[in-house]
Amino acid sequence: MLDSKTFLTPAQIVAELDKYIIGQHDAKRHVAIALRNRWRRLHAPLDMQREIVPNNILMIGSTGVGKTEIARRLAAIADAPFTKVEASKFTEVGYVGRDVESMVRDLVEQSVNQVKQRRKEEVKNQAAQAVEDLILDALIPPVSGGGLKPTAGFSTTIDSSAMPDSDYELNERTRDKFREKIRSGELDDRKIEIKVQQGAPSMGIVGGAPGMDEASMAGLQDMLGSMLPKKTRKRKVTIAEARKILLDEEAAKLIDMDEVKDEAIRNAENAGIIFIDEIDKVASRSGKGGSGPDVSREGVQRDLLPIVEGSAVSTKYGIINTDHILFIAAGAFHVAKPSDLIPELQGRFPIRVELQSLTKDDFFRILKDPKNALTKQYEALLQAEDVALSFDDAALERLAEIAFEVNSEVENIGARRLHTVMSRLLNDILFDVPDLIGPNARILITRELVDERLKSMIRNPDLSQYIL
Ligand SMILES: Nc1ncnc2c1ncn2[C@@H]1O[C@H](COP(=O)(O)OP(=O)(O)OP(=O)(O)O)[C@@H](O)[C@H]1O
Asked: How many angstroms is it from 332 CA to the middle of ligand 1?
């Protein structure tokens, strides 16, 4: 995507983000520039490409206002590998817990999966052809022998050497007929026996050699795994299921894993986005009179620094350079301030954006407008049961109001509150369909209905604390 000749302009990127995220215009502008800059860098002269450093971003805003969502959607727009980590989960090197390099390994893993998926898509037609042959072999073994065992009801062993020409032709004609039936889906429910590959055998390496890191261990496991013959197992499944299972296996056989690894590493290096949440939780400096936990928090920041500054991290797919990965750090910064981060780290996140707290009106729009709005999700769920659910605007206004009130009275969890409120509102309906509310029913959620179902709870803070 990023290496294609044209790419979305910053305004177009914002327009894409607008489809999913309400408000937060400032943050959208900054991430749009950062993304377009990555494309610009890849089209700059080679010697300059090395010099251009990404403008990492620090997002400041309370929980549930769209920080993660913006970063995730940004990655989706660029089809870029993305990973989210919580800074508070890291521990300083030398202590038990997740080491900071694991986020780079996660990113590469993500990138490998993405490339693999893309390549499989490219060879899908070729793989489908091979799958059709395998299914056919299971139904009617070819005269040349081989193939998979047919199930009861079909001819069994065919001795090709003893077969006269006419029998051979007959077999071919039968196979052609069945090929058509397989294609039309007519035989989808018929059971056949197929050989499926079993998951990688466990090598039983626990702990590894002293001094061996996680990446080398995983690499060793992979290497040993690939040296052993792949185990297969027989399974009896319907033709429809066989198609799915075999398609994945056949597609995997057609792609070159070395190429996949190379491309995945390149993508992670040039397009990867790492989102570090809760950075404020590791932001307090021992220099300010801190002890114990402060020292360790500063340790985590010091460990993060080389990765954000650019260094080589070894992963089971190879060495990856972090120089051009885009880092987006985020935190509420209610207690600690960005200035409590160690200066070197502050310097690595030159772009600061503040996300706004969401208003009642924002809640209303979040319920109604995004492509994946909660109302649209529930409507689609019930559509599957042929029940038409809809919401009138007054109902959505009331829901937004309730979510806003509960946030101010109980705890502010931002737009996440809409999930709990909606689920409370619709639970009975979701349970009653289809037993009590049959197909073709129409349900209109009105303001009165919202009040009726939720009023008792919002009047009682003790209750809403647990339920909403
Ligand atoms: N401005 C917004 N527009 C649309 N949906 C939003 C917005 N803000 C939050 N949401 C929705 O609320 C949920 C939580 O948002 P998100 O994960 O982005 O929170 P966050 O700001 O990253 O919080 P945290 O720091 O706790 O992770 C998501 O389902 C997201 O879609």
From this structure: 13
Q: Is the CB of 416 within 6 Å of ligand 1?
A: yes
The predicted pLDDT at position 158 comes to 47
Ligand 1 pocket, residue 331 CB under 6 Å: no
Alpha carbon nearest to ligand 1 atom 5, residue: 21
In this prediction, residue 460 carries a pLDDT of 67
What mean pLDDT, rounded, does the chain reach?
Answer: 86
Three-class secondary structure assignment of 120-188 = HHHCHHHHHHHHHHHHHHHHCCCCCCCCCCCCCCCCCCCCHHHCCHHHHHHHHHHHHHHHHHHHHCCCC
69 lines ligand 1 (CB under 6 A): yes
- How high is the pLDDT of residue 430? 95
> What Å distances lie between residue 310 and 271, 275, 305, 320, CA to CA?
14, 16, 8, 10
Residue 64 Cα to ligand 1 midpoint, Å, equals 4
Q: What is the pTM assigned to this prediction?
A: 0.82
CATH 1.10.8.60 given to domain 360-467? yes
Contact 325, 107 (CB under 8 A): yes
Q: Is the minimum distance from the CB of 367 to ligand 1 under 6 angstroms?
A: no
ipTM of the complex: 0.98
343 alpha carbon – ligand 1 mean position (Å): 29
Residues in binding site: 22, 64-69, 277, 344, 416
Residue type, 432: D
**C-alpha torsion 384→387→391→395, nearest 10:** -120
- pLDDT, one tens digit per residue, over 320-360 is 999 999 999 999 999 999 999 999 999 999 999 999 999 99
Beta bridge partners of 389: 443
User: 54: Cβ below 6 Å to ligand 1?
Assistant: no
Q: What is the pLDDT of residue 227?
A: 65
CATH number for region 10-119+263-354 = 3.40.50.300
Q: Which of 296, 311, 266, 275 is nearest to 56 (CA)?
A: 275
Mean pLDDT of 43-49: 93
Is 103 touching ligand 1 by the criterion CB < 6 Å?
Answer: no
pLDDT at 289: 47
Residues making up the binding site for ATP: 22, 64-69, 277, 344, 416
Per domain, the residue ranges of the chain are: 10-119+263-354, 124-254, 360-467
Q: What is the pLDDT of residue 155?
A: 44
